[in-house]
Write a structure and sequence with these properties.
alpha+beta, Extradiol_RC_dioxygenase, Glyas_Fos-R_dOase_dom, 6 helices, dioxygenase activity, oxidoreductase
Length: about 300
């Protein structure tokens, strides 16, 4: 096995009303709103993208904010958390600043030798801050990892190790739960995926506060098509390539139930607006421009 995934491209989640979501991620977690567009399948709903200053793959967290969304239910068969890398030199300062601003945080824990604090977002979702060497904040650090909650770790483990190039990097078990750490080679952002299982867990249900899918990086269109062939050969049901304006995407559901995407790095988020003003204007795909007035009339007003 010589080919491997290089890391996470983005994570997409579901939230309730958008303004609380914008305030939490831009003001408390210091993310930049790098793209304000609509759900391409439901243009009456925003699709908001957060990331670092230059909107690099591996820093991008996106949300579908539904005003009347029912709460999601954590459980197996879905991605259950994502973790930002925060420099160990400033980790305690970041945690203290979040507490001072009234954020809901867990007590510090240690996971595979690294300090971890979980922050609860406005919809009750777990946002993990994980200490790594350095002095970077969560925006510049980007993703450290994502966690998949599964009934059986084996089938997902085999897909990711045998066909996606991950290697086992640790195993922890206590009180009826276990966590298997997988890591892709290299030092890109988001090379870690934790597979988590807990005795007696129920299946999760999507809604506000849940993760919709996790996306892995492809270098370009040719690399993505090669991954598509490889996933089909591994028995996955993979979609055709879909144009998402800022990347091309293919989707498949991994054996444990979570939705995976493989997204291309290009063309990127400066395709339709300059870097300096990313996220300031509502950007629409060309097919929706003729109905821009109708779309803007139904979207809630937000400020970042």
């Amino acid at each position: 096995m010589t080919k491997h995934i290089t890391g996470l491209h983005h994570v997409t989640a579901i939230s309730g009303p958008p303004q609380a979501n914008v305030d939490f991620f831009t003001k408390l977690l210091d993310q930049r709103l790098v793209k304000k567009t609509v759900n391409f399948d439901d243009p009456g709903t925003y699709h908001l993208y957060y990331g670092n200053r230059t909107a690099d793959p591996g820093t991008i967290l996106t949300f579908f904010p539904f005003v009347g969304a029912r709460p999601g239910t954590p459980g197996s068969g879905m991605a259950s958390a994502y973790g930002y890398s925060v420099g160990a030199a400033v980790f305690d300062d970041h945690v203290a600043a979040l507490r001072a601003q009234g954020a809901t945080l867990s007590d510090p824990q240690e996971r595979f030798g690294q300090p971890v604090v979980t922050v609860t977002d406005p919809d009750g979702a777990a946002v993990e801050l994980i200490a790594e060497p350095g002095d970077h904040g969560p925006a510049e650090g980007g993703f450290h990892s994502t966690t998949l909650w599964l009934d059986d770790l084996g089938p997902t483990q085999r897909l990711m190790v045998d066909h996606m190039g991950y290697a086992e990097a640790g195993h922890e078990a206590a009180d009826g739960a276990e966590r298997l750490r997988l890591k892709a080679p290299g030092d890109a952002r988001g090379t870690v995926v934790d597979l988590y299982r807990r005795d007696g867990a129920r299946r999760g249900q999507q809604g506000a506060g849940s993760i919709h899918h996790v996306a892995f990086r492809a270098r370009d269109d040719a690399d993505q098509l090669d991954w598509r062939d490889r996933m089909i050969a591994a028995g996955m049901q993979v979609t055709p390539v879909i144009d998402r304006q800022y990347f091309n995407a293919i989707y498949f559901r991994e054996p444990g139930g979570a939705l995976f995407e493989i997204a291309t790095d290009p063309p990127g988020f400066t395709r339709d607006e300059p870097l300096e003003s990313l996220g300031e204007a509502l950007k629409l795909p060309e097919k929706y421009e003729p109905i821009r007035d109708r779309i803007e009339a139904v979207l809630p007003r937000i400020t970042a």
